[in-house]
Amino acid sequence: NAALRLSGISKGYNKGLPNEVQVLHEVDLTLAPGELVALVAPSGAGKSTLLHIAGLLDTPDSGGVEIGGEDMTGLSDRRRTQVRRNQVGFVYQFHHLLPEFTAAENVLLPQLANGTPRPEAEARAGQLLAQVGLAARADHRPAAMSGGEQQRVAFCRALANAPRLLLADEPTGNLDPATSDTVFEALLGLVRETGLAALIATHNLDLAARMDRQIRLEAGTIHG
Ligand code: ADP
Ligand code: ADP
User: Fold this and answer.
1) 144 CB less than 6 Å from ligand 2?
2) Which residue, among 224, 222, 223, has the nearest Cα to 24 in the 3D structure?
3) Centre of ligand 1 from the C-alpha of residue 77, in Å
4) Is residue 224's pLDDT more than 80?
5) For residue 25, which of 50, 44, 56, 52 has the smallest C-alpha distance?
6) Residue 186: predicted pLDDT
7) What is the pTM for the complete model shown?
8) Mean pLDDT for the stretch of residues 97-105
């Protein structure tokens, strides 16, 4: 089964209004399990819209979304939420960690919310943080960490519930080049280790070139 399959996805905003905008035109995209794909797009091309649709945070006007072989069309909100929580991880340009919790707790919380027993959740949090070189930072709050460290914690949190699909929107967008590189290496390690599929929007062409495949989103259509 494909980790993600988008078929004929179209999406617009403000239908019928003077400011109507058609953002996606019949987009087709398939990610195999374990595949790391760069999504390269100029600003405003619709990449956030595409990622939100792929991650079930938004619905297309037409077209199909399949995650792990399951067709998401017509599913109840309850089931969509379940799939989003269990099978999809998100990372954004800004980490959105909870400031009052430590790194380990930030990775723990989504697991507890999902019903994972605390000892198991703690073990997984420790293991994920160690994998990205942050074992020594587990008990630090986000404010005590650098931008690159915060973003590595955000990756760990996104992977806390062992999703099959990772969606990232400019995950290194606010980091300097050297830090971007370290954070990207950490991400690469996690993706390769877990075998999940990842769709990563980036403006950084060097990073894009190091992924398995690049796709460009231009004028609402996928190229490459
Ligand atoms: P990107 O992430 O590539 O910058 P977006 O998907 O955020 O692009 O937006 C694509 C286009 O859709 C832009 O023109 C944007 O202004 C418009 N857009 C995005 N979200 C909305 C919305 N909720 N309502 C109206 N227009 C929107
Ligand atoms: P304790 O220290 O008592 O074990 P935690 O701080 O680990 O408690 O949080 C316990 C639960 O409270 C978690 O399952 C979490 O879902 C919830 N929780 C508390 N504060 C927040 C918050 N700001 N955002 C999300 N969940 C929270």
Assistant:
1) no
2) 222
3) 23
4) no
5) 50
6) 87
7) 0.85
8) 97
Nearest ligand atom owner, CA of 47: 1
For ligand 1, pick from 15, 23, 200 the residue to mutate: most ligand atoms within 8 Å of CB. Answer: 23
Full DSSP string of 66-108: EETTEE-TT--HHHHHHHHHHHEEEE-SS----TTS-HHHHHH
Could you tell me which of 60, 66, 59, 53 has the C-alpha nearest to residue 3? Answer: 66
Phi and psi torsions of 100, nearest 5°: -85, -5
Does position 159 have pLDDT exceeding 90, yes or no? yes
How does pLDDT run across 39-50, given as a tens digit for each residue? Answer: 999 888 999 999
Decide if pLDDT at 150 tops 90: yes
Out of 109, 112, 114, 161, give the residue to mutate to test ligand 2, the one with the largest number of ligand atoms within 8 Å of its CB. 109
Supply 177's token pair. 């080049």
